[in-house]
């Protein structure tokens, strides 16, 4: 078996992860370095699931991940018979799903050398689901390999953690993300570099900023709020605007997916969707699903707000960078004039206080304070200092 | 005969209203023909041609009612068949279509409208203003009088969910007599209405610290959770801040602009006297901090809520 020269071949789109790729390609090439369960962690947008799929392709590929052959292509597009991807779209992984996977793990691969089971959100395993997986992880089956992905080690139940080998992905560099956008998505160079910087290297967000005009516009208006809050009225409106933005995004993406999940569940249960009332076991499963979907929508809304706050924070951070003599590049280089203006209008201490204020709002929202209230308190705290 | 036309389109996201509209159309049709056969077509599992089959006259005579829900989630086949049937017309059958919104299925909506469908709106009921109007209308239709304070109490008790709100209105109309007051609402939804929470907020926002503290002690002693009290404080101060900074204009216009009920605007205007921007700002910040504390951020939720009540009263005093 030949080792592809990393990060080429199937690893092309796993950017800025030289160490992790080196570990994984070594395992592909040398059976002694292979193990039956891997845990890939990395911050959102670092490309965890991309790395897991690439690893799976490299394992199935007769040339160790050439990126060109039928095996590589089918793994990457999700149609390979021996590679199963469990993607939850943010719902919890239930015990019945975990049991099905554990059973699947017992069967030999049908066409390739490995049976690969990828769990994209291992942090979404319920405790009982994790228990159901434990036995499978404890008693390895020769040709089966598990690839679990999660934001961080702490997000994964400890018993699972201790039975898998950990590979840490890091936040890729702005340059690496920009280069990926240019190569993979055909984005023009300047736009790619703006998007990578503004998204602070979050690959998915960067792609969105590069391809979606409205997303760029939204980010811009969020960031520019910084200099525009003068009165209590401004603060209240700014908070309401930020909060409603999140609502829009989450309902836009949610409704269709919710309906599709419901239809799928009905089908699994063999329920008649036209019936006016469903039998009790169907009703209880449906209401459990609805509850999960509601939780997900709430969480999603909070995530959207949190991202806006990270954007806002970057603007104050940039103003501090300017005051400190521009030693490092600006995140909001496209808004340099506005950043300078803020830097002139505030002292470094005031900028730091503003950043703390935004940080406090993030903490509160994380702790279940209603986002609108947390944002109001924040916006009030961000008002321009009197007399300036 | 009935006055329900052969095409009925119920458009809008509010399921309570949509279901009601469908039920009342079906009732009217059944009043005219008790034997009318009701056929529900499932938008997701629809097979091409089903609609035409059901919309054509039955061999045994008798009329049919075809109900299609969630056309906005329907498969293309169903959308195409609705267009087809709307254009061709129906004999001895009524087609009722529910569409929650969005661009999907728009072709079918246009075809129905063009063919003279009766269009019934089911607009989203989200803001307090909408809910307040909804409640008022429920009682008007039920030929009953409800006081503004009672509307407020009802919204606070069961206003989160429109279905629950609708059934609470129904229950009050069925089970009580005379004018519905806040006390009546409290009696029926007593476990839920934290009228004391409101009194605490009113006293604090009015700058009456001793009264606010006394009511708060009482509320906590009777088992009221600090979390909803803080929520009431937040919503009262928010309304004052929004109304106070919105400038002049009639209550009705302002209510519309801010998504509040007119009585909420009037109230907030009264409460706003004695406040200014800086002090209101500090009060709102204190509430946000308290909310964090009562949600587990602080060690003592009771202390946190006492403290914020005192802070608000002190800010009002100036
Ligand atoms: Zn290959």
Quick gist of this model?
The complex is a heterodimer of chains A (388) and B (318). Chain A is α/β, with parallel strands linked by helices and 388 residues long. Chain A is 58% helix and 6% strand.
Features of the shown structure:
heterodimer, A: 388 residues, alpha/beta, Rossmann fold, 2 domains, 5-stranded parallel beta sheet, 5 strands, globular, B: 318 residues, Helicase, Ruva Protein, domain 3, Zinc Finger, Delta Prime, domain 3, 3 domains, 15 helices, 61% helix, binds zinc ion
Which spans of chain B of ≥5 residues are poorly predicted at pLDDT below 50? none
Could you give the distance between the termini of chain A?
69 Å
User: How are helices and strands ordered from N to C of chain B?
Assistant: EHEHEHEHEHHHHHHHHHHH
Query: How big a fraction of the residues of chain B is strand?
Result: 5-15%
Class based on secondary structure composition and strand pairing of chain B: alpha/beta
- Number of H/I helices of chain B: 15
User: Ligands bound here?
Assistant: zinc ion
Helix fraction of chain A? 55-70%
What is the N-to-C succession of helices and strands of chain A? HEHHEHEHEHEHHHHHHHHH
Q: What is the average per-residue confidence, as pLDDT of chain B, rounded to a whole number?
A: 87
What structural category do the secondary elements of chain A indicate?
alpha/beta
CATH topology of the largest domain in chain A, by name, is Rossmann fold
